[in-house]
Design goal:
The chain has 423 residues and is mainly beta. It has 6 helices and 29 strands. The strands form 6 sheets. Strands 1, 2, 3, 4, 5, 6, 7, 9, 10, 12 and 13 form an 11-stranded mixed sheet that branches. The longest helix has 22 residues, at 13-34. It is rod-shaped, with a radius of gyration of 54 Å. It starts with a helix and ends in an 11-residue tail after the last strand.
């Protein structure tokens, strides 16, 4: 039996070997036809590790030339390749490789590639790949958040206030980027608004030219904030002014003019609906002892009712002009004579040595008199009497004498007309 089996194995052994070779070849053909090896390229994102060495050195990095996306060429059977994706690859650059040379400038980190699965069935192109980065100092800035409005509220309303509930934030990142930041802002659409509202908005960073700053490389302590918007109703009201004091004797107030005549106030509707005018108080405008027209500038906002504001802050300064006129013109009529006196003394019959009086008297014959009174001791050396008939302010007729006098201290040339009225 054994001999028979050996005979079957050893008989025609050449043909049997040939059959085995043929079977293997046929298997290889079938495999290559049904599940051949193929080559494919995957686009893989590069990750970094040990970035803490940068933080400890106060450095940040920027990837150059999009070198954080690499192409990986692999070969595998069709059945394996069909199950592969870019997520199966790990492409890692390690900052520990340059921990001894963390200087500002450009650096290259070698990228190591591995597979999460099928690693024994996949062949990866062994070419070297590098992540190119630029290192620089890390900086930090604290910014106030400025809230602004876009659009226009409904007619008859205004934006009284717009404020962010969070007032500030901190931004960290590359020093070169931080230095370009001017301020942080949020904008709220207030179009057709007619009541208070709140809105959550993204924070935007701006440079000195008002252009947005890219925040991709920056870290913000907050990215969105809630903004509260206060909306007031508006109303036009008239302006008035009171006065205090009394003008100087012989003068009176002719008119008071307030410019502008109207202002626009704002507030919640319940606070302004009963207001039709705003009055500047008497304490602000005093005419005490005034004898000429004057103007005063007044800040009207201080006289507005509580919870009421000016819709336009440029209207705050108003001008009050008080016109003062003279009223004490004394007219005396006697016979044919009319006398207009100004700046007269209380007793016209008494001559005050310190007073100089110009009097114009009109009669049938008009005489113009200039009187100069001096307190001197006079020795009369040469007297010339010219008698002129004149009428005084009381209608009496007397003699007027013209006198040239010389005093003890010198010579005085006086052309004096004295009205004799029984003094």
């Amino acid at each position: 039996m054994i001999k028979k089996a050996l005979h079957l194995i050893t008989n025609n052994w050449g043909l049997k070997i040939l059959a085995i070779i043929f079977a293997l070849a046929l298997w290889l053909i079938v495999v290559n036809v049904e599940d051949p090896d193929i080559t494919r390229t995957f686009s893989v994102s590069v990750t970094t590790q040990n970035t803490d060495v940068l933080e400890q050195a106060g450095k940040v990095y920027e990837v150059l030339d999009d070198s954080d996306i690499i192409s990986v060429v692999v070969t595998a059977s069709r059945s394996v390749m069909d199950n592969l994706s870019a997520s199966d690859f790990n492409a890692v650059a390690d900052f520990a490789d340059i921990s001894d040379e963390l200087t500002d400038g450009e650096h290259s980190l070698e990228i190591n590639i591995s597979l999460n699965r099928y690693s024994s069935q996949v062949s990866i192109d062994s070419g070297a790949r590098y992540l190119d980065v630029a290192l620089e100092n890390e900086a930090e800035v604290k910014l106030d958040i400025a809230a602004s409005a876009s659009g226009s509220p409904q007619d008859g309303y205004m934006i009284a206030d717009i404020a962010s509930r969070s007032k500030a934030l901190t931004v960290t990142g590359p020093e070169s980027v931080i230095n370009t930041i001017s301020y942080a802002g949020v904008s709220v659409d207030v179009n057709l608004a007619n009541s208070d509202f709140s809105s959550k908005q993204d924070i935007v960073l701006y440079d000195t030219d008002g252009k947005e700053v890219d925040t991709e490389r920056l870290t913000l302590t907050k990215k969105r904030v809630t903004v509260d918007v206060t909306v007031y109703a508006t109303k036009s009201v008239s302006l008035k002014s009171a006065m205090s004091g009394t003008p100087r004797d012989g003068y009176e107030v002719e008119s008071v003019l307030v410019v502008p005549e109207e202002i626009t106030i704002a507030g919640y509707e319940d606070n302004i609906k009963d207001i039709d005018s705003v009055t500047i108080p008497a304490s602000a405008i005093s005419v005490d002892d005034a004898y000429e027209t004057f103007a005063r500038e007044v800040y009207i906002s201080q006289y507005l009712p509580e919870n009421v504001i000016l819709a336009d802050s440029t209207e705050d300064v108003v001008t009050v002009t008080v016109t003062i006129i003279q009223t004490e013109d004394t007219t005396v009529e006697s016979g044919d004579a009319t006398t207009i006196e100004e700046d007269t003394t209380d007793d016209p019959g008494t001559s005050d040595p310190s007073t100089a009086t110009d009097t114009t008297t009109t009669t049938d014959t008009t005489t113009t008199t200039d009187t100069t009174t001096t307190d001197t001791t006079t020795d009369t050396t040469d007297t010339t009497n010219d008698t002129v008939e004149t009428t005084d302010g009381t209608g009496n007729t007397g003699d007027t004498t013209g006198t040239d006098t010389t005093d003890n201290t010198g010579t005085t040339d006086s052309d004096t007309s004295t009205s004799e009225d029984g003094q």
